[in-house]
Amino acid sequence: MAHSVATLLFILSSVGPAFGVVYLQIGTNYTLQPKITGKPQNILWKFKGTKVVEYENNNYYWYKDYESRGQLDILSGNLELKNLRKDDTGLYQSEIQVDGRLHNSDHNIEVMGPVFGVVSCRTGTNYTLQPKITGKPQNILWKFKGTKVVEYENNNYYWYKDYESRGQLDIQSGNLELKNLRKDDTGLYQSEIQVDGRLHNSDHNIEVMGPVFGVVYLQTGTNYTLQPKITGKPQNILWKFKGSKMVEYGNSNLDWYKDYESRGKLDIQSGDLTLKNLRKDDTGLYQSEIQVDGRLHFSDHNIEVMDGISQPKVSCQDEVTLTCSVDPGVQAEFEWTGPDGFEATGERLNISQVIISKIDSVFFCTAKNKVSESRTSFILKDCYKDAGHYCK
Questions:
Q1: Please, is 378 exposed, middle or buried when counting C-beta atoms within 10 Å of its C-beta (0-12, 13-18, 19+)?
Q2: If you count Cβ atoms within 10 Å of the first and of the last residue's Cβ in the chain, which end, N or C, has fewer?
């Protein structure tokens, strides 16, 4: 029974703190701190289960290349790692004996290259990815979504897929220029560049978009033409609305989807798409993908369809408030004008006693939204059944 208790106590003393993941940049230094109390007699650090350094009987034992870029503090058990690399990412574990008791700790670090923010580019333009290294590269590797783009090694270039025809690698800086950007170039680009025996990594995100036209406000029942503004004669045309196909043209065939054929018209010479008899549910994002001379062109168009405004109506409330209204469900803003340069905004207008005394005053209410406006007039005396008790 005593043996079982002793075993249990040893197990409990062997379980140390587990620290959260620490994110670090390539080339920096970091110190792993087990945070023990007392002077260690024996120290062991491991990385992914493999020994890094061992201290025992006043002797150090370093493994792999850690001695050249590591430093062990035998008074605290701290392990400093210098010039961090991506392959230093993972779990570090310490086993440290103090006063006959074994202390354990787990440390997770993730080492990353410089991470550049998302850069937005237009289709058809060029963009240069810049890893911003110092020194002349010996080896260069660029990847896109984990797949090789270009490799430079022993003075030889190796291009993959179609990147050689539209890419340019600067072997002095490691910069990679991408030409004639397409929408499918959107994503993560990563560099691995060796300079003076050290590996440098960087991550770059780009998003490639077609020309983005501002929101166009349109009235229900009207027609509107979406114009991608391309140059040249299209071979293939695709229009989508909220990601779903509307119309497709290719090999001299025209394919319409849903009810768009009955109220749409496609100009195969320009790629323009006309929408007829617009409805509120036509509001949203329209996208074109048009191939001209083997190159794909994209464009994004946002429209918002709303009802126009019929003539507003003015009514009286409690003889001192005028209310201007339009048909239910119609978006509108209201402006008032009146005698002596009077101006006000809002659906309701509170009339002062001074103005009430001018019983023949005429007020105008203008209701408007982004597609139309309408105005009506109102004579103040219409608020009163008997206006005779007012002095003019």
A1: buried
A2: N
